[in-house]
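P.,

For your records, the input lines for the assembly:
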Amino acid sequence: MRNQVDAVRLEIIRSALVAAAEEMSVAVFRAGRSNAIREMLDFSTAVFDANGQNVAQAARIPMHLNTMAPCLETILARHIPAEAWAEGDVVVTNDPYCGGSHLPDVLTFRAVFHDGQRIGFAGTMCHHTDIGGGAPGSYNAAATEIFAEGVRIPPLKIKRQGVLNDDLLAFLLQNVREPATLKGDLVAQIAALDLGAVRMIRIAERYGRDILLAASRQILELSEQAVRRAIAAVPDGVYAFEDFVDSDGISDQPVRIAAQLTITGDRLVVDLTGSSPQTAGPINCTLNVAKCAIYYATIAGLGGEFHANSGCYLPIAVIAPEGTVVNALSPASVVNRINVGHRIVNVILGALAQARPGRIPAAYYGVSYLYAVQAIDPAMGRSVYLDSIVGGWGAEPTRDGAHVFSCGLHNLASIPIEMIESRHPITFTRYAIRQDSGGAGRFRGGNGMVREFRLDAADGSLAANFDRFRFTPFGLEGGQPGAAGRLVLVRDGAERDLPAKLVGLRLQQGDIIRVETSGGGGYGPAADRDGAAVGRDIAAGYVSPAAATSAYGRSEGSTQVHGA
Amino acid sequence: MGCEIAADVGGTFTDFVVRDAAGRVSLYKSSTTPGRIADGIFDGLERIAARRDVSLSGLLAGCDSLAIGTTVATNAILEGKAAKTALICTAGFRDTLSIREGGKADSYNIYIDYPEPYIARHLTFGVAERINAEGGVEAPLDEAAVRAAIRQMKAWHVEAVAVALIWSIANPRHEQRIGQVLDEEWPGIPYSLSHRVSPSLREYRRFSATAIDASLKPVVHQNVAAIEGRLQAHGFAGVLTFVTSNGGRTATADILAKPVYLCLSGPSAGPHAGTMLARDEGIEGGNIVTIDMGGTSFDVSITTGWNTPMHREGVIGGHMFGVPSVDVRTIGAGGGSIARVDAGGFIHVGPASAGAWPGPACYGRGGTLPTVSDANLVLGLIDPAGFADGQIELSPPAAERAVSDHVAKPLGMDVRQAASLIALTVEQNMVAAIEEITVRRGIDPRQYLLVAGGSAAGLHAAAIARELGMKQVLVPAVAGVLSAYGIATGDVRFGYARALFTTSARFDARGVNAVLAELEADGTAYLDRMRVPPARRRFVVTAEARYAGQVWQLTLPLPRPRVVGAAGLAAVVEAFHVLHERHYAVRATDPVEFTEWNLLAIGQAVPMGVYAGDEDRRRGAPPGLRTRPVFLMDAGGIIDIAVHAADHVPAGMRIAGPALVEGRLTVALVPRDASAVATRNGGLLMTLV
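C-alpha cells returned:
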C-alpha cells in the first residue's frame, strides 16, 4: 500500500512528465510545415526515464508511441549506448531494422541531463511527407525491398552537443521530393526536444533527481499493476480469432492474421503463430510494429483506466515467429505496415469479444486509406498531396457505430479541403458520409466516407495503399459486415475501378479520383433493429430505402429525405 | 450622473456590481432563476432595489447603463435549445459538420461518444455551385435548388438558416445571392452568411460558426427583446450592452446581428477583471494569471505585459464557434466537482459535478458523493453558516460521510487526510490547466501574479501558486463576483476582419493598405455609433501570419497601422520572426505569409471607483479575534487558526499564516510559510515564502 504523501507527489510528477510530452507536442504541431503534421497531426512526443523506458506520452498516436520505447531501447542496446550520449546530442533514425517503424516516420531523441547526470530522454516522432524512394509520398506499393522505399537513416547524431550536423541534413534533403517541407518539420521536431528537456530538468530541480527517478519507476509499476488487474478481471481461457488482409499488392494471395490470446490469472500471452509468411509487397510489420498494434488493441480492449507507458507492456507476452508478416526480417519492405497493424487490432479485439462478451464493438473500417497524388504543373511545379482517411466505426454492443471516425491506433485528424486546395492543384467535388456502407444489425455499423477530387495540373500520378476491398470489416453476434472500400477513376465520364494497392498510375488533367472507405460491422441480428432507428437512418440518408428494404424489410423514412 | 449596473448571469448565481451616483460600489449575489434570463436579472434587480430602499423603477430610471454577461448562448448550444436551423451548403459537402476535423483526445477508448452534427443531416441542403481557391466561379449557383430548399424548410418549420459555401471567403458572391433569395422568398427569416460571420480558412470552423450563429438568432432576439421591453417599462433610459466572447461589451444591435459573439459571454470578462484589479493595486509589469473558480468550472487565462491573448479555437459542446474569443481555458473543476477513487487506487476529482442540484453532499439536498466543497467543510475551512452570503446552511456530518465512504475508506486513510487529498487533487487539476496556457506555451508562471476569483478560490490559490512556483497571490475584495466586476469595468470592443492573402516575397502593399483603411473605417463608424469620445478610442491591428509552408498562423500585432515601403515590410517581418521564436524556440529564413487582417475597435471604459468592502458590515462592531480548528496537512493535523473578518481588516495590516480571512462572499486561506497584507482596495495580497 502506498502512503498518502507518495500518492500525491507521484501524481504531481506523473502529470508534470505528461505535461512535458504535451509541451513538445504543441511545439511540433505549431511550428511544423506539412499538412501531415499540421492538419493530420501525424506525430507523437514522449518522455523516457534514464533507462529509456517510456514514462509519459502526449495523447497522440499509439501507433507511434508504442514504437518509440522499443526504438530507443534498440538504439541504446545495439547502436549508441547511453554513456555515449553527451549533453545536447540528438540522435535521429528512421530505420525499421534499427527500431524504427517505416521510413517516413523519423524519430529524434535527446538525452536530458541534470547536474551532469542523465535523468531521462525526450523523443519526438513525425511522419514526413516524403522521404524519397520509388513513389511520391514514399508509399511505394510496388516496393519488394526496403531499398526501394526511401532514404534509410541508421541511428546517427544529427546534433552533437547542441551543434547541428549540416552535412547529414544536406545529405537527407538531397534525397527527398519536398526538401523544404522535410527541413521545416525536422527542425520543428528537434527544437521541440529542447522544450521537453527544460521541463524535465525543472522537475528534477523541484523534487530532486532521486525522487524523479524513483517516481518514474513507481509510475511504471502502477501502470503494470493496473493492466494486470484488468487482465485478471477477464476469465482465464484461450481465445482465438483470425482475419485477412486482401493481399500484399504484388501477388493476389490473401494474407492471414491469426491471434490466440491465452489468459492465465494476470498474464496475457498473445500468440500470432499461424499468420502468413512475410510478403514481397510492403505490408510487413517488424516485431516492434506488430507489438505496438498488439499493445494498443489489448490496452484499449481491456477497457481499464491506464496511464499509457512502458509499464503497461510488461504483463503482455508476445509470440510472433520470425519471417512472418508480424515479425518481418530485413530487407522486407514495410512502408504500408499499418495495413497488417490494423488487422492485428481487428483480430485481437475479435478475440477479446469472446473473452469480454457484450463489451467489444464489431470491427471498424480496418485500414488507413493512405494515398498520395503527385501533381506536376508548369506553373506550380511539383507538389505531393498526401492524405490518409478513415471509415466507419464498428457498432457497439449497445449503440450504433459512429460514421467516419478514426481508430485510436492512428488517431488521424482530417485535412480541411480548403487547406488542400490552397496548396495543391486539386479541386474536391465531394467530401461526405458514404451511404449504406455501415454493416446492418441490431446496432448499425458507422458509415465510411467518400472523398472525391479532380486533378487540375497538366500531369500527375497516384499511389494508393488501401485494403478491405475483399475482406470486409466483420460484424459481431450476427451483425452484418461493413461495406468494402472502393477506389474509382473517372475519366471522360467513364468510371473505372482501380485496385486497392497501386503506385505510379499516370493521371491527366480533369481526372476525378473517388475514394470510398469501408464502414464498420454491425452488432446483433438486423431483424432485431428498432424500426424507429431504421426510419431515422433513412430520413437522414445514412441508409437508402433500397438497402433498408433488403436489410430490415422496411423502406419508409420518418422524415422526408432531401438532397442526399 | 446616475448609477451603473453590471450583471453576470451564471448557472447557479447571478452576480451584480453596482456603482451609484456617488461613485460607491456595491456587490450582490442572488440565485439565478432557471429559464428566461430576463427573470433572473429582474429578480436580482428587485432584490438590489429593496436593499437600497428604492423601487425597481426608481433604481432603473436612475441608471445610466446596464451591462450583461450571460450564458444564454452557451447554454442554448449545450442544451440543444437553440432554434431549429437549416444549413445551405455547397453540394457534395453536406457532412462537413458531422465529420468535423477528426482525431480524438482519448485514443485508447473504443467506446465513442460522438456528438450529432450541430445541424441535423435532413436539414442540411447541398446546392450546386462552386467557387475555387482563387475566387473563380467553377460552377454557377443553382438558384432553383435554393428556392426548392427554402420551400422544404418552410414545410418543416425551420426557424433560422445558415449559409456556408466552400471558398466563400475568396468570393462571397454566391452566399450573398442566397441571402437575396432568402429575402425574396422568406422575408424575415433569420439567416447568417459564413463569409460575414467568420471570414476564415478551414471549412468546418467557418460552417460551424455560421450554424451556431444562425441558430442563436431567435433565442437571442427573444431574450434581448424581453430585457429591453422590461427595462423600458421601468423607465430605463440608459445604455444596454452585452459582453461578448472577446471580453468587451457591445451594443444590442451587434449582438443581434452576430449572436455567435455571445459564446462565453460572462467568463470572457474574467481576464479583464483580474488585470484591472492588479493594476489598481499598483502591480507592475502586467504579468497575471487570472483564475475564476465557480461551482462546476474553473476558468483560467493569462495576461502578459497587460495583454490577454485571443484565439479562435473555442469549443462549446463539441462544436467550434470560430469567432475570436479571449483565450479562457475552462476545465471541470469547482466547488461541486465530485471526487472518486478508480480501480487502480488513483483519486480523480471532476470533471463530473454535483451541479446546483442536488449539489455537494453538505447542501443536504440528497447528494451523497463527495465534492470539493465537502472536503473544504470537513477540513474546517468553510463556515457552515456563512456560505454564499448565508443563503445555504451547510451540513458538516453529510460532508464527512460522503468523503469517508467514497475516498477515505477505499484508500484506507483518515477522513481529514482524504479531504486534504481531494483538495490537493483538484488543485493539481487547476495547476495543470494553468500550465497548459503557460509552460506549454513557453511562459514561466513564476514571473506572474495569481489573481483568484470565485468565492472559495482563496482557499486553493496559495497552494496552486506554490505548486507553480508563483510568489504572489491577489484575492481581490470583489473575488466573489469577479466576472461581473470585469463586465462593470470592461471596454466597449468589437472586431472586424478581412481575408487577403499575400507574402513577404511579393508583398501586395496596395491591397493590404486598402484593407487596413477599410477596417479602420469600420472601426471608426462603430465607435461613433457607441458614442465613444476620441480620447478613449483605440485600434489594435493584427495580421494572421505564418512561414511559407506552415498552415497554422500566429496573430501578429502590426507595429504601424499601414505597411509603408521596404522598411515598413521589414519591420513587420522581423516582428514575426521574434514572435515565432518566442513561441516555438526557432526562427526561419522563409518568406512570411499573411492570410487575414484584423482590427479590434476599442472604446476604453471610464475607470470605476474602488470597492472598499461591505459598508453595512463595516458599520457593525468588529467581531473580535476568532479562531477555528482547521485540519492542515502541512501542520500535521488539526490546529486552531485565526479567522479575520475581511471587512474589518485595515489596509496595510499584515496577517501571518496560517489564517483564514472571511468576507461576505469570499474566504481565503493564508497558509503556513506565507504572509498576507490587506491592500488599499480591500483585497489580500499573499506572499509565499
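Two observations worth noting. Residues 203-233 of chain B form the longest helix (31 residues). Chain B touches chain A through 78 residues (CB under 8 Å).

Regards
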